[in-house]
Amino acid sequence: MPNERFPLPATDISKVDPRFLRQEVPYSTYEPPGTIVIDTPNRHLYLVQGGGTALRYGIGVGKEGLEFAGEARIGRKAEWPRWIPTSDMIAREPERYGPLAGGMEPGLTNPLGARALYLYQDGKDTLFRIHGTPEAWSIGTAVSSGCIRMLNQDVIDLFNRVPEGTRVVVIQAEPPMSAAVLPDEAPTSTAAENPLLSF
For residue 138, what are the domain limits? Predict the structure, then answer.
């Protein structure tokens, strides 16, 4: 993406498991089109489409104990955002994050990448984000401080598709069998491997 504010080189997708590459998949859900559903255990983000489909993106997620769960709204969108570590991050790893307490300017090495979608609850910033990353190898892993990581090209694609106010549902665990919906009662979520989108 040479026309970006910071010309973005191609991502080396050889470092990314093919199941985490962006694609359109069958996806049955009660959520209306336009909703973002984040399936943390399976490391996928779905943007619900009409007609029983979704755009599926591979993601990196928070380390155990640092994950976000529940519902939120996109309260703010930013292109090439500035990054400031949270006070919790500085407290956990002062040697690593302390020197960055004043923030880090946008750029190719900025941890928030090319775009950030800020998650809000009841009008307040949760400090969790959906954002890009220059570390393609981290997609499909649990290494972040709680945020949802995407390939920079993927977060740009998502950023362009969703407005502020978009509802975001974050799932942290598979539903227990006792809570599972029987097939003849309601739709269940499916995600077949069916690449349809060019990268």
Answer: 16-179
